[in-house]
């Protein structure tokens, strides 16, 4: 019997959807709608034809052939993302106010959740958008027994309380959507507790992160987060730093365009003052002022818990009703120097209403005296436990520096007496101490969940209530 060879193939221009990239080879995908006509399939006993058949099914295609299709696809995706952002902005603009003290009530709310040794910050904008910065903890259940004091709540208790606060009326009650998620950097105590705090049905509209997203992989968290993205392309790696002497502002490696006054939305554009805009409302904006600082000198940081990833922390500035709030993650001295060395950014981080102390109040990596003096904050928040010995956070020296600045600047208003816990150096080691203060210094392990509200009528307030 005469063996039948492959049928003659018609020539056509390849389409980008017909290809997959596998290592260095680009091949047709069997089963695509416009796949070339398939040959007669050889019988099982025609083993000598199998190599020929396999070769026929996979035809190498050059990068040059793919370039136009890839460019067109990228352009279409960008256009779709722009349309989606415009539609969302219009929807947010037309939202009606709700009752005071709840999401979308016309005020801005921010809560630093008590996470033990970890970070989780949740915010509601005046128009009702929900913004979350980090969600992780290396609390009591993961630490050595000798590292935990008797009064430190268990991790399970802390996470349940954080969940209840997140789903209270100020934030996710009846909403269950995160409009903007910021992952400051890939340390586990900043991202490994999303499953504990947020419902599995939560939807995420956009994610901004430092370094490669694959580094947020502890407990398959990259998959968990990606599966909850409403738009797969709304995931952005942020670089806002100095590389080889030049300041770069990039999202996913692409230069960020400068916003124009005529633009309906400034989302994902340079705000013209050193920031990348990620929230854009009439009375409330959020911009990333730093991210990936010093990365060209840190190529060796590969593990998700590597302390060297602290340098990469995203720094977010909130500007609402004339007040400024700065969220720093684990930003280091290097990040502080970057922000102070640029005239525009330096002006924006001065005279803050509230700042989160970098790296849980560490004196070894963050909160340099020049930085503390310049930000001149009226309030201080520190995400740290009540009695966790592992990292000795926060440091007594940081508490003292901020207290001294508040006293000297006279911008801070004293509040009711409250107890704080911190660590001081003693004979080459550390000693835990407590003190009573009236300065507005809020340590989550001491204070509990700390909430700050900014209203358009300037009656801003601090609280630790349960709503």
Q: Could you describe the 3D structure shown?
A:
With 467 residues, the chain is of the alpha/beta class. Helices cover 22% and strands 24% of the residues. The chain has helices spanning 50-57, 63-93, 155-166, 194-197, 221-226, 333-341, 343-348, 369-375, 396-409, 444-447, and strands spanning 19-22, 25-28, 108-112, 120-124, 130-135, 177-178, 180-183, 203-204, 207-209, 235-243, 246-251, 254-255, 276-280, 284-290, 315-320, 323-327, 354-356, 380-382, 418-426, 429-437, 441-443, 450-454, 461-463. The chain has a ten-stranded mixed beta sheet with strand order 12-11-10-9-7-5-4-3-22-23, with no helix packed on it. It has a seven-stranded mixed beta sheet with strand order 13-14-15-16-17-18-21.
